[in-house]
Specification:
Elements: H1 2-16, H2 31-43, H3 60-74, H4 79-90, H5 105-130, H6 140-151
Length: 154
Amino acid sequence: MMRRLVQIIPLLLCLAMPAFAVQPDEMLADPALEARARGLSAQLRCMVCQNQSIDDSDADLARDLRILVRERLTAGDSDQEVIDFVVARYGEFVLLKPAFSARNALLWATPVLLLLVGGGFMLLRARQNRKPSSQLPLTPDEEARLAELDSRPD
């Protein structure tokens, strides 16, 4: 039993290793250009998977974008020119880490605003709970009834 387990564990570990989406036919011959392409691919979001970079995704659209990035680099574009080209074509959503700008300021500020509003609400509720409730004085009839109840033997 133990011997069998020792044989199966390495196979299971191989299955748990991450799969690399970049196919050998996509890779550039120049190692420097390939390193730049991999760096750029890690910054771009797969429009199908949305929480993966195109470098990690094996979707067809991600493959097309990886090839596009490599074509632009081979054509002599700088890294920023490649990013600008892809953003112009697909919008800022394609960036995994979009830059702060006036257009997306609300998107960046929303979590902070929600925390502030929630904290303010909790602070107001805590202050309201600490304040003694304002009691109106008893009417003469209520005082008489209270006195009657207090004077009763148990």
